[in-house]
């Protein structure tokens, strides 16, 4: 879409000479000058679509659509005049012939209906062409519906689906007598490739494409009128004397809705992208999620979970009373009783055996403020550094790789940098399912702007299928090909010598370690062809900017930190740091993986990544908190499990983590839980981990509290309380404070803003962070200076090392875990688009569960043929650590003896029954992705685990845009400008 | 040492204790709002006396059916036309300058009175009477007033709309429609106006007819 640039042109606007930006679309420029031009198909996030013709103006005497017109020097622009007005009224007549104005009884009448508002602004009182039904059925599924009789065929939904989400499901069938929106060339929503991301309903200017949560709920009358709806509309049309008076009535009704519909900004908790949006609620009922253009990470984008996956908040399975173990069962208790017990147990243990017999695990799904308080409780109140969070399970190796080389453990830039990069390389990341909205930016850039995409993965995931180059190296050999490609680049003289000289140390030493990574060796070890390796090297060489994205396929290995380091080394060698559109992008998996560590839930670091062993830093915190602090690093959560088994750790307080399912080798972890002397678990549901607890505390999810998260871009965003905590539950920060005060802390925080102020005063990395600066959709990317200036591009002047230079860090390949010959199946694992982890939130959504009711094992066609497996066959996988039983799904997404087991099960299909306790040698992150098993077929026949209404069976129809040329070519279409000219010529 | 368990014993709440607690909460609410409740009950008693509550109860219980019946009846009868006319009349009333109409209305009333008197008491004056009347200064003045009234009717409707600051209603323009009047290229006006001359004239005529009606109807009623 056209953006306002810096170049200017001289034009005449309505008789006045003015200077205007050259790159701007005329419509955008006119809007900036407060000249109102109707525009119904134009959406700022989608650009010109050119279907509605309402934005017609005259340029140099000719009628043009202002949305798609770029200005040139000397242009004479007329936005007034009867001819222009007449052309706009012709366009509006066509729009209104397609859309029935029954605003007062319309659920979309909330002040934001663009048709309503345009009719009002143009003061249209009557329409010449009456609205008539199109004769097409309403389409609906569990999430949204499409009413063709209300559709103005603006094509926004199609543009969003084709070119923003790039799911390529929606089209307009322009060949029909009365065109309509269709799914996959004319099937139902559920049987199409639609992923229910919600873009279409978000961008629809009216009630044609609307969330079903709004139906019959938003308006005062919309739920009342059932059989009487049609007569009411007809009578209103009969008696109306003009739309203006009707608009007054519907505007009053819309104003009244403000009293009962709350619109609250929150931040999504389903991945690290950090989508923010308004949640529309009526009481505790969620009407819809409405993303907004100003949302810094996602704009108007969402995925199915963020848009429709919030039913769990009102689930009857929510915990509402503390539980206390009595023997082999729990009894519901009061908060007083539960806190009394925790107080006595903790106090006794600290007194008897010292604070290091206790450990604390914070959550990457909770807020920064809650992570801050958890580590403060551990360090300042209890007196131990045994505090960690679940980024240990995923992202610590990526952070380690970046600390070693560039000093900051965060993404180099923003999602917009990824979008503008010339080359994106994705390694071990199922991005389109794990970070769906971020993936849309890559897909869009590739489709519309020629971005090159290279994917390295074991599995043909969606981005792999779309990639310009897809490589499938042998498992756990990424470090080898990364090093081989780096060596080849340097050997060709394609490295950025100037950048290295000015900004990076230790080049020679590093280059020597690359010696063995010849093309022959690399090809032999990775199974990649030399041509593939050379193509990757050439692509990096030719691209002015390269971003490398990586995730668990890299980090959850024994050499996870080293491979992350190799990625950063490659970027340093090619000068792909310190400039927009380039850099390292470890894609954070949970909403606050970044923030949980940022705010000190780590055994060796305070908030802002300062070491607990640093006397000066510790003294600052001791002064700030008024207590003496432990100086030795504590246990990470991997070590905690071993310590429990060894009898060296007695008590654990864990919040918001399903450690009993998501840690690797869960049989071992669960056995450790059983050995704990006292175990406190804080969650919103009675999770598998809760089953081992002594006290379970009912917490509140993100919708029920204020706070901040830090997303994968290092971006602070505020979430506001959507509704009160469910009766009996409490926000985590309040629970932590109550426990701390039982232990004598004397904390008196009344709002999370006070906690943030305290954290910002102590951690220099966040010095300028405050709730005032994060008002609404405002955000800050760390480091944040005291004056509030932030750092969207992480490295501009240099790197955070004493001499300001980055460092090449030589690394060696680590051979993956050897399981033995009998374990011949390599078990890859990860996420699915529609479910979040073990699924205790997303399975609460009836719509999501209907489409994806259970976990399944993806099996290749080759393996299926070899073992006689079909869709629905029941199979058992057995590793040395346990076994799972699950239904199979035969697919070409995996090959050979590779299988893929999504992590969305907490029962017989739980992946971590197979994984080992081997871990990244530098960070103890479990090597989840180094898992092998043997496979037995338990039953050859069965129903497929994936219903036919799953989007994976769909048949996408890629095209660019909405195909407006087909509309223009129709015999019944005349450009309104031409029609006006013709009429005038007859005068 | 805790074995894995899913067994949860729900907290037993004594129903009697729960009831007592709720009764206490209700009692407090009543005491706090005593004055308001007294007024509310007073109103409710009056509504009950007039059967209003039962009517509302019945209406709400069958609201959709009732609404459906009413709306379909309105839709299929001339009632919708009546409602529309009533709404149009309301709009027209808004355009009449009642204060300036006052002397005209007085004169009209006077004329009606004289005409009535003639009709019932002094009939049969014939040509002689007519000639005599023509010479009457009041008749001559009356004709002068009527002449001015008719002159007013002859004025250009567009000029009148400007004079009285009346805005045209704006309609969309269909592909098939022909003969739209070209408006003047005055941005301030053009942005608001459109529509055909015929339509404008019809509105003006309608306004005139309704104005006369507005004068005559109250006059007739006042006579009775």
UniProtKB/TrEMBL annotation, chain A:
Its EC number is 1.17.1.9. Residues 7-83 form the 2Fe-2S ferredoxin-type domain. One of its GO terms (molecular function) is formate dehydrogenase (NAD+) activity. It catalyses: formate + NAD(+) = CO2 + NADH. It is an enzyme of class 1 (oxidoreductase). Its cofactor is [2Fe-2S] cluster; [4Fe-4S] cluster; Mo-bis(molybdopterin guanine dinucleotide). Residues 142-161, 185-215 form the 4Fe-4S ferredoxin-type domain. SMART domains: Molybdop_Fe4S4 (SM00926), NADH-G_4Fe-4S_3 (SM00929). Keywords: 2Fe-2S, 4Fe-4S, Iron, Iron-sulfur, Metal-binding, Molybdenum, Oxidoreductase, Repeat. It holds the Pfam family Molybdop_Fe4S4. SUPFAM superfamilies: 2Fe-2S ferredoxin-like, 4Fe-4S ferredoxins, ADC-like, Formate dehydrogenase/DMSO reductase, domains 1-3. Residues 261-317 form the 4Fe-4S Mo/W bis-MGD-type domain. InterPro entries: 2Fe-2S_ferredoxin-like_sf, 2Fe-2S_ferredoxin-type, 4Fe4S_Fe-S-bd, 4Fe4S_Fe_S_CS, Asp_de-COase-like_dom_sf, Formate_Dh-H_N, Formate_DH_asu, MoPterin_dinucl-bd_dom. Gene3D superfamilies: 2.40.40.20, 3.10.20.740, 3.30.70.20, 3.40.50.740, ADC-like domains, Dimethylsulfoxide Reductase, domain 2. Residues 83-123 form the 4Fe-4S His(Cys)3-ligated-type domain. In the C-terminal section; belongs to the prokaryotic molybdopterin-containing oxidoreductase family. This is formate dehydrogenase. It comes from Salinicoccus halitifaciens.
UniProtKB/TrEMBL annotation, chain B:
It comes from the Bacteria. Keywords: Coiled coil, Membrane, Transmembrane, Transmembrane helix. Residues 19-46 form a coiled coil. The chain crosses the membrane at residues 201-221. The keyword Transmembrane applies. This is Uncharacterized protein YjgD (DUF1641 family). It comes from Salinicoccus halitifaciens.
């Amino acid at each position: 879409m056209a953006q306002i640039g810096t170049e200017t042109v001289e034009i005449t606007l309505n008789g006045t000479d003015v200077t205007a930006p050259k790159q701007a679309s005329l419509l955008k420029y006119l809007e900036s000058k407060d000249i109102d031009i109707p525009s119904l198909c134009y959406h700022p996030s989608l650009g010109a679509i050119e279907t509605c013709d309402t934005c017609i103006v005259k340029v140099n005497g000719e009628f043009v659509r202002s949305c798609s017109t770029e200005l040139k020097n000397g242009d004479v622009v007329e936005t007034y005049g009867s001819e222009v007005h007449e052309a706009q009224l012709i366009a509006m007549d066509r729009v209104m012939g397609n859309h029935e104005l029954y605003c007062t009884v319309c659920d979309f009448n909330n002040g934001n209906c663009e048709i309503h508002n345009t009719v009002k602004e143009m003061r249209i009182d009557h329409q010449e062409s009456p609205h008539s039904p199109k004769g097409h059925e309403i389409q609906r599924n569990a999430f949204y519906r499409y009413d063709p009789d209300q559709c103005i065929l603006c094509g926004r939904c199609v543009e969003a689906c084709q070119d923003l989400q790039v799911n390529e499901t929606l089209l307009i069938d322009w060949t029909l007598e009365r065109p309509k929106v269709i799914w996959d060339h004319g099937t139902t929503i559920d049987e199409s490739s639609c992923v229910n991301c919600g873009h279409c309903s978000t961008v629809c200017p009216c009630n044609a494409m609307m969330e079903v949560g709004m139906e019959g709920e938003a308006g005062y009358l919309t739920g009342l009128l059932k059989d009487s709806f049609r007569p009411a509309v007809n009578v209103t049309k009969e008696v109306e004397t003009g739309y203006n008076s009707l608009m007054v009535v519907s505007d009053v009704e819309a104003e009244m809705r403000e009293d009962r519909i709350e619109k609250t900004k929150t931040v999504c908790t389903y991945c690290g992208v950090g989508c923010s949006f308004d949640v529309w609620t009526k009481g505790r009922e969620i009407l819809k999620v409405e993303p907004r253009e100003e949302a810094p990470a996602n704009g108007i984008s969402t995925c199915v979970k963020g848009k429709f996956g919030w039913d769990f908040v009102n689930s009857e399975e929510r915990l509402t009373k503390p539980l206390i173990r009595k023997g082999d069962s729990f009894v519901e208790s009061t908060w007083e009783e539960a806190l009394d017990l925790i107080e006595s147990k903790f106090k006794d243990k600290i007194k008897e055996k010292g604070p290091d017999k206790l450990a604390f695990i914070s959550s990457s799904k909770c807020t920064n403020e809650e992570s801050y308080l958890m580590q403060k409780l551990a360090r300042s109140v209890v007196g131990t550094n045994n505090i960690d969070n679940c980024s240990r399970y995923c992202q610590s190796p990526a952070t380690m790789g970046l600390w070693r080389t560039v000093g900051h453990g965060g993404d180099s830039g923003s999602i917009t940098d990824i979008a503008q990069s010339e080359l994106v390389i994705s390694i071990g990341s199922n991005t389109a399912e794990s970070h769906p909205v971020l993936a849309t930016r890559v897909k869009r850039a590739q489709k519309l702007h020629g971005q090159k995409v290279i994917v390295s993965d074991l599995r043909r995931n969606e981005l792999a299928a779309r990639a310009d180059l897809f490589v499938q190296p042998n498992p756990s050999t990424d470090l080898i090909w990364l090093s081989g490609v780096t060596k080849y680049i340097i050997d060709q003289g394609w490295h950025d010598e100037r950048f290295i000289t000015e900004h990076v140390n230790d080049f020679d030493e590093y280059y020597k370690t690359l010696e063995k990574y010849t093309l022959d060796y690399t090809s032999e070890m990775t199974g990649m062809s030399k041509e593939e390796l050379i193509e990757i090297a050439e692509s990096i060489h030719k691209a002015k900017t390269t971003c490398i994205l990586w995730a668990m396929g890299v980090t959850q290995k024994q050499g996870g930190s080293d491979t992350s380091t190799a990625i950063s080394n490659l970027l340093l060698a090619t000068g792909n740091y310190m400039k927009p559109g380039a850099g390292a992008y470890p894609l954070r998996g949970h909403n606050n993986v970044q923030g949980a560590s940022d705010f000190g839930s780590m055994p060796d670091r305070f908030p802002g990544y300062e070491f607990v062993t640093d006397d000066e830093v510790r003294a600052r915190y001791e002064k700030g908190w008024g207590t003496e602090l432990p100086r030795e690093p504590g246990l990470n959560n991997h070590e905690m499990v071993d310590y429990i088994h060894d009898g060296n750790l007695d008590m654990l307080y864990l919040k918001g983590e399903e450690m009993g399912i998501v840690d690797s080798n869960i049989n071992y972890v669960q056995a450790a839980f059983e050995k704990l002397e006292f175990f406190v678990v804080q969650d919103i549901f009675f999770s598998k981990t809760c089953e081992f607890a002594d006290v379970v505390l009912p917490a509140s999810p993100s919708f029920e509290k204020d706070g901040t998260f830090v997303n994968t871009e290092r971006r602070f965003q505020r979430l506001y309380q959507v509704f009160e905590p469910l009766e009996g539950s409490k926000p985590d920060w309040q629970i932590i404070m109550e426990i701390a005060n039982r232990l004598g802390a004397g904390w008196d925080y009344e709002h999370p803003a006070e906690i943030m102020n305290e954290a910002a005063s102590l951690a220099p990395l966040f010095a300028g962070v405050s709730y005032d600066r994060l008002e609404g959709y405002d955000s800050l990317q760390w480091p944040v200076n005291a004056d509030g200036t932030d750092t969207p591009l992480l490295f501009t002047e240099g790197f955070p090392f004493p001499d300001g230079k980055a460092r090449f860090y030589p690394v060696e390949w680590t051979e993956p875990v050897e399981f033995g010959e009998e374990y011949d199946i390599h078990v890859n694992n990860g996420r699915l688009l529609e479910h979040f982890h073990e699924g205790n939130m997303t399975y609460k959504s009836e719509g999501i569960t209907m489409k994806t009711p259970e976990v399944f094992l993806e099996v290749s066609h080759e393996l299926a043929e070899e073992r006689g497996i079909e869709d629905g066959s029941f199979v058992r996988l057995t590793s040395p650590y346990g076994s799972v039983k699950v239904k199979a799904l035969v697919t070409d997404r995996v090959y050979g003896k590779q299988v893929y087991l999504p992590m969305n099960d907490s029962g017989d299909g739980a992946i971590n029954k197979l994984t080992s306790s081997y871990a990244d040698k530098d960070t103890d992150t479990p090597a989840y992705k180094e898992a092998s098993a043997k496979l037995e077929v338990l039953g050859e026949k069965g129903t497929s685990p994936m219903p036919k209404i799953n989007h994976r069976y769909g048949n996408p129809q890629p095209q660019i845009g909405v195909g407006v040329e087909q509309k223009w070519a129709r015999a019944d279409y005349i450009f309104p400008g031409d029609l006006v000219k013709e009429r005038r010529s007859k005068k | 040492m805790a074995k894995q368990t899913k067994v949860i014993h729900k907290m037993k709440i004594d129903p009697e204790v729960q009831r007592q607690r709720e009764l206490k909460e209700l009692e407090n609410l009543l005491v706090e709002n005593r004055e308001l409740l007294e007024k509310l009950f007073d109103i409710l008693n009056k509504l009950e006396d007039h059967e209003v509550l039962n009517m509302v109860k019945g209406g709400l219980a069958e609201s959709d059916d009732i609404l459906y019946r009413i709306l379909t009846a309105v839709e299929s009868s001339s009632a919708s036309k009546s409602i529309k006319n009533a709404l149009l009349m309301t709009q027209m009333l808004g355009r009449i300058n009642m204060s300036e109409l006052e002397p005209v209305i007085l004169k009209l009333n006077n004329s009606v009175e004289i005409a009535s008197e003639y009709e019932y008491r002094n009939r049969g004056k014939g040509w002689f009477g007519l000639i005599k009347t023509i010479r009457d200064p009041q008749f001559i003045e009356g004709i002068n007033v009527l002449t001015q009234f008719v002159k007013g009717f002859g004025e250009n409707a567009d000029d009148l709309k400007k004079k009285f600051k009346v805005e045209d209603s704006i309609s969309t323009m269909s592909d098939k429609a022909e003969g739209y009047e070209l408006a003047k290229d005055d941005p301030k006006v053009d942005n608001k106006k459109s529509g055909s001359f015929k339509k404008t004239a019809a509105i003006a005529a309608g306004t005139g007819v309704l104005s006369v009606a507005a004068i005559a109807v109250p006059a007739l009623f006042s006579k009775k």
